[in-house]
Specification:
By secondary structure, this protein is of the alpha/beta class. It has one domain: Alpha-Beta Barrel (TIM Barrel). About 35% of the residues lie in helices and about 25% in strands. It has 9 helices and 13 strands. Helix 5 packs parallel to helix 6, helix 6 (about 195-220) packs parallel to helix 7 (about 255-265) and helix 7 packs across helix 8 (about 285-295). The relative contact order is 0.13.
């Protein structure tokens, strides 16, 4: 039997509908939004094991599921909400959460910053509780202007604060990684003649961020602590008509921007927001270039899957009896 390859999927903007609303194929007024936040809330599904045997003797992929959680104060301020979230994860097989950080920044006289994490005790209790459920927590943050150099020290200060937090708590209360959803193409100047300059600034941030995480791993011996960023599937395209790569010359090497990013960080999440695997507009064709390149340099790639309605597409609803629809999409893509 041919060995199946390992793969990873993100499922973005997932919603859980009532039977009444799903029958109408429209969003309900009582949408169960747990654990959905705002933009890019959703679920990541990652294949970390090769296969498992099913009753019919065929091998099926075993996935790790994760969710983005942006509105985190409600969990940090309420153990009851924490349990509700973790019970949701347990019911749905979710075992990783990208958890939005709550923090403040103080500027030093030399222009550097100190990041002060909020709710440190509550955060420690939550991560420990999540660990008892078998759920990993990774620190999440994201803002488009973080890509610009004047903002870099703020980002690096936050990474240092997370590393310092990990040093101060028991292993079960530690973050297992840092995940950034910085999207520099949301900066207005990106779509003008400043595109390459903005991308160069962003690449510098990725490099410096990864260096801090690498140093932390070396000093702590915690090899599973990782750094990742989200990228759109179209970074290798200048526009949607001609598909000319956004070439960036970084340290004397010219490559598509997405390839440079893959080179620099532990993993990337490709925001490949489609509700079908096959076809000219499916997840496979949009994500394949980054996946093939990442494979050549030995990097992990995460694939994002859309579950909200897209123009001229059927609304993808994933309730308990329709969960096979989601699983089918995942298995086709991976």
């Amino acid at each position: 039997m041919r060995e199946k390859s390992k793969g990873t999927l993100y499922i973005d903007d997932i919603s859980f509908l009532t039977a009444r609303a799903s029958a109408k194929n429209t969003p309900p007024s009582d949408l169960e939004s747990y654990p959905v936040g705002t933009r890019h809330s959703g679920t990541q599904i990652q294949n970390r094991s090769s296969a498992r045997s099913s009753a019919d003797g065929q091998e099926k992929k075993k996935f790790t599921k994760a969710i983005w959680l942006w509105h985190t104060k409600r969990q940090l301020e309420s153990p009851k909400n924490q349990i509700k979230l973790l019970e949701f994860c347990k019911r749905n097989g979710v075992n990783m959460i990208f958890f939005q950080m709550q923090y403040t920044l103080q500027k030093n006289k030399d222009g550097t910053y100190v990041c002060l994490l909020k709710y440190k005790k509550e955060l420690q209790d939550f991560i420990t509780r999540a660990s008892s459920y078998g759920v990993e927590i990774q620190a999440l943050d994201g803002f488009s202007r973080f890509a610009l150099k004047p903002w870099h020290e703020k980002v690096l200060a936050q990474i240092r604060a997370i590393i310092d937090y990990n040093k101060s708590v028991p292993e079960k209360a530690r973050f297992t990684g840092i995940h950034h959803d910085n999207e520099p193409y949301l900066i207005a100047d990106y779509w003008g003649n400043q595109r390459e300059d903005i991308m160069l600034q962003y690449l510098e941030l990725c490099e410096r961020s990864q260096k801090l995480v690498d140093q932390s791993r070396l000093k702590s011996g915690l090899k599973n602590f990782e750094f990742g960023v989200d990228i759109p599937f179209w970074y290798e395209e200048r526009n949607f008509d001609y598909k000319v790569p956004v070439l960036v010359t970084w340290k004397g090497v010219q490559k598509p921007a997405s390839h440079h990013i893959i080179d620099l960080v532990d993993n990337v999440g490709i925001m490949d927001y489609r509700t079908k695997a096959y076809g000219a507009d499916g997840t496979i064709v949009h994500g394949k270039d980054e996946i093939l390149y990442a494979n050549t340099v030995g990097k992990k790639v995460l694939i994002g899957v859309e579950t909200y309605p897209l123009p001229e597409e059927i609304f993808a609803v994933f309730r308990s009896h329709l969960y096979a629809q989601l699983t089918n999409l995942i298995e086709k893509t991976t």
